[in-house]
Amino acid sequence: MLVEEVVLMIAFAVTEFKRLLFIDNMIDSIKFVVLLYLLTYVGVQTNGLTLVITAVIVIFSIPLLYKKQQVRIRKVVRAVKAIVKKINSLCLSLYESVRPPPATEPTSKPAPVAAPAPKQKAKSK
Length: 125
What we know:
Elements: H1 2-21, H2 26-45, H3 48-68, H4 70-98
């Protein structure tokens, strides 16, 4: 069910991108081009130093955020763990239902095969 939703979302995104790129609707395509232009302008203004400063601020803000919101964060983590556990058990049950049954061993055992005799080297003259 989840895979079907993901496939539908990807298909919708591809069709929407094709519609915008190949100018199905002129106004939407112009909006798309303006958005891309603005994103390039933002990319020029944002350089690596800005990203480093933002990363430092986030790194030092996370402990304070966790301290203030510890109860809520733990509830969310527990809920996510429960969902992951359900998905894991679902995948395992699907795997067990799809996996072929183990092969049964034959009732009569074949006779052991004798090891071949070692080959002698031919003498060269």
